[in-house]
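Contributing new records

If you add data, match the layout below exactly. Sequence lines come first and carry their own label; structure lines follow with theirs. Keep one chain per record. Anything else will be rejected by the validation script.
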Amino acid sequence: MQNYEDKFFEGERILYGLKDANLNEITFGTGESPLKEAKNINIKNSIFKWKYPLWYDENVKVENTIFETMARSGIWYTKNISIKDSALQAPKLFRRAEKINLDNVHFSNAEETMWTCKDINITNTQINGDYFGKDSENIYLDNVSIIGNYCFDGGKNIEVHNSNFVSKDAFWNCENVTIYDSTLDGEYLAWNTKNLKLVNCIIESDQGLNYIKHLEMENCKLIHSDLVFEYVSDVNAKITTKIDSVKNPISGNITAPKINKLIMDPDKINPEYTNINCDMVEMKIEKSDTNQIAKD
């Protein structure tokens, strides 16, 4: 293995095609693509200051390293990369990459990051920025915090544990999503998604959980959530808190201790296809009042 220690590099493609190397305490200054097409490299205690640092690479390990703001669009088309104990300040950092492992990483600006990637494992990480994880697949999250709208739009095969989301329009257009022991806060949660399972979750959402095909919820809390389950087919929801309002589910079973407003418009859905198991429905709204309650 080649060893690079305590160096400053500047210039375009300065270590292009580097193979079998350890880099420690390296600063990459201005100059695009310093490590393009590198293979089998270990990077520690280093700083990337400029664009496109790790494109088309294979087998990369990164520890205690900083990607500054202008290291944007930094890791594209790369396979088998792990990053831990690092600060990622640059946007658009991952695109079309595979076999990504992140642990104890902070994304300060994850705008348009992790797009069209696959085989992703993220643990103990903070993520801030809109449009994280778009069109990516085979994703595992544990102890992850995401603050930013539209995360995982179009994602597939996602498993989440012990995580928090503050995100409008999270998990739209997804397939095969399972979320355990997590909190989700944001409007319009998971519209147009297929096969969504939520277990031991706390959810606060305005008009969330609509237009879903096959929705399972076990031991979940819906806090201040209204107009839920609209046009959801094959729902099996076991809710432990009151629900502010339920609107026009297509089919399935909904269990809750109380529903403040239940809207079942026979012009939109067949009410007989959904079984409502509830100790108390405070107000049931049918066809004549549906438009008014929707405006409320």
